[in-house]
Design a protein that fits this description.
Keywords: Iron. It is built from two helices and six strands. It is α+β, with helices and mostly antiparallel strands and 70 residues long.
Length: 70
């Protein structure tokens, strides 16, 4: 299942990032989004969603949400 299919307010564990872009993977890692870390969809909006990772909230677009498997 991907982050795009996640329920709002429920905590999930990141299983992996499906991308060939090393810079994007490094960026997500710097946010704390990597395998084994908890992630929560706070809200959905047109074109993406707001997620909570560690102590931060981030806006994730639809394409990126599809790449994060939970």
């Amino acid at each position: 299942m991907t982050l795009l299919e996640a329920e709002e307010g429920r905590e999930y564990i990141v299983k992996g990032i499906a991308t060939e872009d090393d810079e994007l993977e490094a960026f997500l890692f710097s946010l704390g989004c990597y395998s084994g870390e908890p992630i929560t969809v706070v809200s959905r909006m047109r074109g993406g969603c707001v997620v909570s990772i560690k102590d931060g909230r981030y806006n994730i677009d639809t394409d990126l949400a599809k790449a994060i498997s939970i």
